Every structure is written in structure tokens, then in C-alpha cells.
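Running low. Got one?
___
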Amino acid sequence: MNVLEYLGNSYNKDTQSFDAEAARKESYENKPKLNIVLFGATGVGKSALVNAMFGKNIVESGVGKPITQFLEKVEIQSKGLMLWDTKGIEAKDYDNTRNMLVQDIEVGFQNAFDTQDDDQAPHVIWLCIKESSKRIENREYDMLSIAKKFGIPTVIVFTDTQFEEGDSFFETAKRNLDAQYKAIIKNRYVRVNSLPYKKLGMQVPTYGLNELLKLTENCLFEGKSNASQQRMKKYAEALRMAQEVNMKMQLNAIIKSAESKVSALKLVAKAISSLPTPVLATVLNKKLIYMINDDFGINNDEDHIKKLTVEVVEIASLKSNFILTKILFPISMLDNFRAMQTTQCLGSAYISLLTEYYNQETGHCILPRQQAIPLAFFKFNFEEDMKEAQLKKGIFKFL
């Protein structure tokens, strides 16, 4: 990949400037889109389940788009999520519209698979059954028939779990569902309480979300071929980054994704064969910061984030003895190493900064509007990383 391919539309060649809106759009478009299908009637707790897994009010933040008459896709850009929601399966006259509804959903799925684009196809199904209803309707069996037809890995989610009071129904439901669909379910059953509530003066906590996370991740590695499993790895990473149940898992996935962005820019630096202008060098590093921000869920459109991006890139330039416009020009093996090493230090120091402000209780990274402390933290880490590189290689000379 050459430098202009890496920059894409984020570099405006006419004005020789950084296009922040284009960078934001490209960052989202390059993100893997995790497609989760939500099967279940209205009232079973699908929205509460999604909000519990991916963040408070996350469903409400999404933008809905009708796919077919009975199928809607809700896009949640901040999470890289596509939620496929079924409409109308709870209707009183379901038996009369059953054939039309099933065919309609199948058309929506088939059209997605026909694109041969993994980002467009359903990856996993959550079939939601309200445990307190103590009933499995014909619609649940119909939805499982669709899952089986398309080979989509499925998790059966019993919402509103009744704990001991629901044990008998849960076991009976498992036996009945396994009798026909054991091959597609593969013992992926989970009982979930999405919201804490009080009962007889006692606080009942959320329950089962970690198990749902584990089973969903298991679905994404179900591909029979090694090539299929490799393709699905990115969706497993998308799941780990989007979920807000296991914050340690989320942070590790975010850091891993951000580090991959740094590695990609290092390869670009290595491949550059002509001296970029100062503006082009700045654009390269601004885009890197934008993509890392996106991984951490930081809004690049906020003024203090835009200002921080500019300051961070300037600090990295001033604190090295080779301005970034020069380090990206490999006129020798030494300059080639410098290009890659400085990119690494810039990215590493910035990832350290965002990790410092990541809240492991909320799963959010909030940077203060007063930037003196964050910039001092970044500057310190950048200098330390560069000094460490100097000691290892013995070829860096600081001002």
C-alpha cells in the first residue's frame, strides 16, 4: 500500500489539507460490521438485552432502515453494530401471515448472502424467548427453521429468567427445541436477566450476560474451514470491542485494534519512496490518531479532540530530531528504521494516553477538555519510548 492509498479521501489533494469528515467516514467504513439477528416477539426484552450487552440506550441511538416488510436493520455506528430485528411475528393473526413472513425474512437474508460480502451477511442469531411466559410458540420453531436453512449459528436466550421457578420450563424447552434443532443450537442456551430489579425487598442483579457473550463469540468461530474461521476473527474482535459486559476484554480488544493501526502506518512509512510534503506527513499522523480515537469510542468531531490531535502530532514532530516529514523518507536503512520507530512511538504513547483515561467501570474513554495534563502525559511517554529505542539501537540522537 502506498501513502495515497493509505490516506484515501482523508487527504484533499486540491487543498493539500486533512479532511476530517472523510477520515471519520473512512474509519467507520473500514470497521468490521458485526451483524446480530434478533428473533423474538415484541415484549420479550430484545432492546433491554442489547442495551445490557452493548451499552445503555444503545438501541435508541441506532438508525433503523427497513430491509423487507418484516425485517429492519438498525445501524449503530459508534459500535460497528448491525442489528437485524424482526417485525410482526407477535401478531395475533401470525398463523395467517406465517408463510408470507417467513418468505420475507428469507428474501432479506438471501439478498445479504448474495452480496458475498461478509460485512453484509448475518453472523449470529439471538432467538429470544421470555422465560416467564413458560411457552414456546410456533413462531420460535419457524425462526429456527430459517436459521437452519441458512446455517446461521444461533443462541437461544431465555429473557426475564425466573431462576429456580423457571428451571422446569427451561429444561423442558431445551428438550423440545433439541428434538428438532440440536444441530443448529449446539447446546447454546442461556438464561438472562438484563436489568436489575427488586423482589420481596431483595435486589436481583443482572445475570447471564457473560455467558451470552461467551456463546456469541463461540458462534463466530463455527466456520468449518480454516479460511472461514480466519475471516470471522475480525467479527469476534468487533464483538469484544462493542460489548460492555467484560471491560477487561473490551480494553484488550481496543488496544489490539489500535496497535494494528500503528503497524499499518509503519508499513506505509517503510514503503514510501518519495519525500512527502510537511502537510502530507501531518495528514498521515492525524489519520492515525483519528483511527485510534475511533477504536476507543472517542468522538473526533468534538473541538477539544480536534485540538488534541493537532497538539499530539506537533509534539511528536518537535520532540524527535527528525521532523516527521523526514522520518517518512527512507533515503537509507537508518531513515527507514527511524520512520517505523517514530511511528511506533507516536502510536504507542497515544494508546497509553487513552488507556489511562479509559474507565473500566463504564467502558468509556473520556478525555478532559483541559488538555495540559493529557498532553504532558503523552509527551512524557513519547520521549520515554524514543529514549528506549535509542538505547536498544544506539542510533538515536536527541536534541
Remarks:
- Confidence is low (pLDDT under 50) at residues 321-334, 395-399.
- The radius of gyration is 25 Å.
- The chain has two domains: 3-28+248-393, 32-245.
- The longest helix spans residues 247-271.
